[in-house]
Every structure is written in C-alpha cells, then in structure tokens.
Design a protein that fits this description.
The protein has helices at residues 2-11, 13-35, 41-44, 46-68, 86-98, 101-109, 122-156, 159-189. With 190 residues, the protein is mainly α.
Length: 190
C-alpha cells in the first residue's frame, strides 16, 4: 500500500493505478501457484520463507530510516520526482507483491478453509475464491490510491501535520520491521 500511495502522490492517480495492476498480477501469480500446489515450497522449505521475511524486515528498517533521518520525507509530503514509465510502474508493483511471501501463505492457509470438496472441482473453487479476494483487494487499494492525493493536499497545507505524520510513519515502519525480524529470528531458531 505504501508503494501505491507514494506512486499516486508523486506521479498521480494513473501511476498508482498502473502500479496496482502490477500488484494485481502478482496476486494472480500467487493464487495460481497456490491452486496448483507450487506455493507449498514455503511450507516445505521454511528457510526460504524466513529469508524473505528477514529481507522484508530489512527493507522496512530502510524505509523507517529514510523517513526518520534528518531531512527525511513524509509519506504524504509532495515532492517532484522523475516520472517513471508505465512499464516500470507495472514492473515495480509486480516485484513488490512477489517479494511478499505472505501473499502465498495467505492463499495456502486461508482459501482452503472455504473449499468444499463435495461442491465441485477444488481447483475451480480455489480460483473463484482467489478471484474474489483479488477483486476486493484491488477495490480497496484503488480507493486508497484515490484518497492519497486528497490526503497529500491536506498535509501540504499543514506543515506541522507532515512532521507528526513522518514520525508516526517512521515509528510504525520500524516497529513492523522489528516484529518481522523477531519473527524471522524465532522461526529460524525453532
């Protein structure tokens, strides 16, 4: 979501929506992998999941540092950035989503809870349920993309709010990064 918000604020809603289409394709890839059983690799090879979790924690620490360092920027602070091509926006949305192993785990852990073996093809049910989840996710993220611009304008007119939001965002990113790092470490030592 933070990637989508940052693209929407810096390059406009169209850039946010193009990035969202990349994340949507990432969801489709994970859903397809889960429905044909390939995403089970995270269950069979737990160190891969732990490694991706650790990389994710490191990335969150990096984002927190970028936000909190002297001269750092708020998520909703408007600034001029070089415009990325639509292909790059799509690709970054896709890569951002594919580097999130929790999406694969969600399809493996959640969707099977709603599949009824006596109600038809298990694979078809998995794809239908996955399509519902993807549709809801795309709608929620699209609303966030459209709201991001309004929030940016609100924050631009209130400099003290930007400073406050920057510190809250940095603290939250650091806290989530710490939780991921602790989870990765405790999972690795168990």
């Amino acid at each position: 979501m933070m990637y989508l918000v940052s693209r929407s604020i810096s390059q406009g809603r169209t850039a946010g929506l193009v990035s969202l289409s990349g994340t949507g394709v990432g969801f489709v890839i994970y859903m397809a992998m889960a429905n044909v059983g390939m995403a089970a690799v995270f269950v069979v090879v737990p160190w891969l999941y732990i490694g991706l979790k650790a990389v994710g924690a490191g990335y969150l620490f990096y984002l927190a540092w970028k936000t909190l360092k002297p001269g750092g920027h708020s998520l909703f602070e408007t600034r001029t950035l070089a415009l990325d091509s639509r292909w790059k926006l799509f690709r970054m949305g896709l890569i951002t989503n594919l580097l999130n192993p929790k999406a694969a785990i969600m399809y493996l852990a959640l969707i099977p809870q709603f599949i009824r073996p006596g109600s038809g093809s298990i694979v078809v049910q998995g794809f239908v349920l996955g399509a519902v989840q993807i549709s809801v996710s795309m709608i929620v993220n699209a609303v966030i993309i459209f709201a991001a611009g309004a929030i940016a304008v609100f924050m631009k007119n209130r400099p003290s709010w930007i400073k406050w939001q920057r510190w809250v965002t940095g603290a939250v990113l650091g806290a989530v990064g710490t939780k991921l790092a602790v989870d990765a470490f405790t999972t690795a030592t168990v």
